[in-house]
Amino acid sequence: MAHPSQLGFQDAASPVMEELLHFHDHVLMIVFLISTLVLYIIVAMVSTKLTSKYLLDSQEVEIIWTILPAIILILIALPSLRILYLMDEVDDPHLTIKAMGHQWYWSYEYADYVDLEFDSYMMPTQDLSPGQFRLLEADHRMVIPVASPIRVLVSAEDVLHSWAVPALGVKMDAVPGRLNQTAFITLRPGVYYGQCSEICGANHSFMPIVVEAVPLKHFENWSALMVEDA
Q: Where are the transmembrane segments (predicted)?
């Protein structure tokens, strides 16, 4: 989860998020270099006393400032396109979960299990246990096995929502009447928090997403108990 006064991204918990962090650092270095060069040129142009009223153009300079930006854009575009294709790839998922957005809560349905579905509401502040986070904790978490490819089918029942978990590098719009899909793999066990990222009404800020990644054996025990209780 995010921390107070945090400026950067959350720690990556999936391979896609690791790639996004590397791409962010790559582009940020290019931005710093361009900003430094532009600042140097501005200072040099303002402070110099050298002028030439006979200089009308410079083919060399025009060639450089045409080719150099094109090279920079290619250096940004190639890794960006690579990550976009990685994010769209859904390769033999071990588990498929349908996440449905409502005003204002999420419901989950495990497609590979019969009768394994539940609603997930935000935990009221007065019901929080020590260590749980206000406005981020849900009464039912989406439990998944760690290190397994997970496919999430995202839709909505009423208005636009968005299913987003920053640590996993996942953000998918929930559109009524349309089924979108995304996929991810968690690198380690843990609890990952997200929130609806599409303004969906008065209680938009009160429909958190909680993904709990556990070892496969623990997931099988949890799913068996949930099916028995259904």
A: 27-51, 63-85
